[in-house]
Design brief:
Chain lengths: 174, 213
């Protein structure tokens, strides 16, 4: 029994020696450490104002920047033929240039009309500090209630204007 | 005389004589020839050549960014300078040569592409062979093609990496080889994050190189 154990031990030692020899092969490793710091696409509204051409100050209006990417505008006691204007800037606060990919208006009733001036699809907004161009685009949205029998009195409606900005190299020409 | 003492004296005398003979044997003339052997081992060493690193889109000078399609095809220039690449060489083992290339791609975004090129130089005294490349812990013994790497751990690949073919290249003393790789940022890359990857290039002494398993 003792002889057997000794033999196994000797064989194991011999094998380990062989393994040791193969691990002792010389090698040298060169290392490449890569760090990828991704940028950020981010835009927000600023300098938001609402105004009107109304002279009698019957209506009232106001705008609240709910969060940097959302403006809530409320117009009370509105009536036909008066123009209400929302004007604001879209600021690029990210690190990547963006382009306006789309501007969509939803839930606008047929008795109201709007005109958007300033910002348009394809406008480029550079990142802050860029020497190429401005990091801001200004826009006006004018809202007008039609002088039509369809325009209801004492009613309320909500509509949404969505401006989608994409990183400059992902812009798809419409 | 006591006969017992006489016996002891006789035995002692016999022992002395025996020792004398032995002494003569040891005093035999001899001459030794000595071989002194010195083994100076060589050095297996290679380095990243200082000044050999080139980045297609470096930070300085400001350069227009590039992009490509998935699979590293259709590589082309964009029209803005937004992202960039920088590098730093390091000597981690303090042997006086550079053994680590630290690449940083800054302010990059989906579809951004960059190409990094450098030379490896045998500055040891033993020929070496490039055996394998270990990319993010995975060994490659031949060109792996375009690899998708999930560096953020969200299950989606963040970059594509293409490694140039240099496997099995033998470098004698003072010989160099051009190595390059491409990085392409994919759509799933998270915004405003730092993602890292590691590539190790293993060279072995020329006579210990074995064909890939």
């Amino acid at each position: 029994m003792k002889t057997k154990m000794t033999a196994i031990f000797a064989i194991l030692m011999g094998l380990l020696m062989l393994v040791g020899v193969s691990y002792a092969m010389w090698e040298k490793t060169i290392t490449i450490t890569g760090t990828v710091n991704t940028g950020k696409v981010d835009v927000q509204f600023c300098k938001v104002q609402v105004s009107s051409d109304e002279k009698k100050y019957v209506s009232s209006w106001g705008a609240v920047v709910t969060d940097p990417e959302h403006i809530t505008v409320t117009i009370d006691n509105a009536y036909p033929c008066i123009w209400y204007t929302i004007d604001a800037d879209i600021n690029n606060v990210g690190t990547i240039p963006v382009i306006i990919q789309s501007i969509t208006v939803t839930s606008l009733p047929s008795y109201a009309e709007y005109y958007l001036t300033g910002a348009k699809v394809g406008d480029e907004i550079e990142q802050p500090g860029s020497a190429i161009g401005p990091d801001t685009v200004h826009f006006d949205i004018e809202i007008h209630l039609l002088n039509s029998p369809m325009t209801p009195m004492d009613a309320s409606f909500t509509f949404t204007v969505t401006i989608q900005c994409v990183q400059y190299n992902e812009f798809i020409h419409p | 005389m006591n006969p017992k003492i006489g016996k002891i004296i006789a035995l002692f005398t016999a022992l002395m004589i025996a020792l004398l003979f032995t002494g003569v044997g040891y005093a035999m003339w001899q001459k030794t020839v000595t071989i002194t052997t010195t083994v100076n081992t060589g050095e297996l060493d290679w380095e990243i050549e200082s000044g050999s690193v080139t980045i297609k889109d470096p930070k300085d000078p400001p350069t227009i960014d590039s992009t490509c399609d998935v699979g590293m095809t259709n590589i082309r220039l964009l029209d803005k300078n937004v992202g960039y690449g920088t590098y730093k060489l390091k000597d981690n083992d303090g042997d006086g040569d550079y053994d680590e290339l630290e690449i940083t791609l800054g302010n990059v975004y989906p579809c951004y592409y960059n190409h990094i090129d450098f030379w490896l130089h045998n500055d040891g005294s033993i020929p070496l062979i490039i055996e394998k490349v270990i990319i993010e812990g995975q060994e490659y013994w031949s060109t792996p093609g375009v690899l998708n790497l999930d560096l953020s751990g969200d299950g989606n690949p963040d970059i594509e990496l293409r490694w140039g073919d240099s496997f099995g290249t033998q470098l004698h003393y003072c010989e160099s080889v051009d190595i390059s790789f491409d990085v392409h940022v994919l759509q799933a890359a998270p915004q405003g994050k730092t993602l890292t990857f590691t590539i190790s290039i293993v060279a072995v002494q020329y006579n210990e190189y074995h064909l890939p398993p």
